[in-house]
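Here is this case:
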Amino acid sequence: METTDLELVERARGGDDDAFRLLVERHSRGIYRTAYRITSNSADADDVVQETFLRAYRSLHTYDGRASFTTWAHRIAVNCALDLLDSRKRREARHDSSDDLSELVSQDASPERVVLGAQMQRAIAAALQAMSGNERTAFVLRHFEGVPLEEIGAILGIKTNATKNTIFRAVTKLRERLQPFTGSAS
């Protein structure tokens, strides 16, 4: 029988480093995906994962089990990712993520398809960058990770209706940016 996250948290609180390592192994892939979608950069996503688990370890005493460990850890990850983006905006000009997205293009695609795919990836990245932190996070969690609305609301600290509105605004912004590719009116 698999040990629950809550049991692992309790063991980690008692000083069992292996228990915390199991939590990291169990949740790091999902947190990485979320961090990558928010930051659009694999190195930044790695940093976010590391910072997330460092903060989680230091804050284990505050985890009360009302939300799932996944929700709690994702909320920390979202905060870390948004902190990283905010600090970058203060330090330098806007980040161009087109190079980071090139790894997503298939090597078997036709040249025209590669160019169109790269253009669309840049448009998606630009649309995500134009969104507020909450919009970007809610969109990524819902449409890339398939997280339920209630859990997204818990991660962002907002009610379900506000979560729906946030996702709607994000989708609207994305549609506006992708209109040249779809040919439809906004």
Observations:
- DSSP finds nine helices and no strands in the chain.
- The CA atoms of residues 77 and 129 lie 18 Å apart.
